[in-house]
Amino acid sequence: MSSEKQYEDQPPPYPDGSQPGPMQPQSLMPPGPVPAPQAAPAHQVNVMPGPVCVQSTVCYGEYSMAIQCPHCHNTVNTRITHQTGLLTWLVAGGIFLVGGFLGCCLIPFCVDFCLDVVHSCPNCNQQLGVYQRLH
Ligand SMILES: [Zn+2]
User: Fold this and answer.
1) Using one digit for the tens of pLDDT, what is the confidence trace for 54-112?
2) Cβ contacts of 61 within 8 Å, gap of 6 or more
3) Which chain residues have CB less than 5 Å from ligand 1, an ion?
4) Centre of ligand 1 from the C-alpha of residue 75, in Å
5) Torsions phi, psi of 79, nearest 5?
6) How many Å lie between the centroid of ligand 1 and the Cα of residue 37?
7) 55-59 own/partner pairs: CB under 8 Å, 24+ apart
8) d(CA 33, CA 92)
9) Beta strands per DSSP E along the chain
10) Any stretches that span the bilayer, and where are they (predicted)?
11) What's the CA gap between 125 and 120, in Å, rounded?
């Protein structure tokens, strides 16, 4: 209806001869390669590392264990000693915060289950590994 009438009223897109504006060198560009619709990007699944024992292949526990010493290559039962670890300080800090008077804060440093366990070789006295309460 009205749209057709408007179309007729409009001047032709290219008036004869004199066309204002710069000449385009290569007429019309072809539509160009349409980028193929990319398939859904393969969602990369982050491989979650399973429970892996870090540090060498030996999991050190809380108690002495039989192990082949990597230093002297003897099969020995590890000698365990205790040292203050992160948990020790956390417990000490916890006691301090709840109002433990001086002295109670030192309890964790004497309690084995608050201490990290250091495994060492009784044969060559090399430290083999540490069992940490908190990682
Ligand atoms: Zn050893």
Assistant:
1) 445 678 888 999 999 999 999 999 999 998 888 888 888 888 888 766 677 888 887 77
2) 117, 131
3) 69, 71-72, 121, 123-124
4) 8
5) -95, 125
6) 63
7) 55/129, 56/129, 58/128, 58/129
8) 70
9) 66-68, 75-77, 79-84, 115-120, 127-131
10) 86-109
11) 6
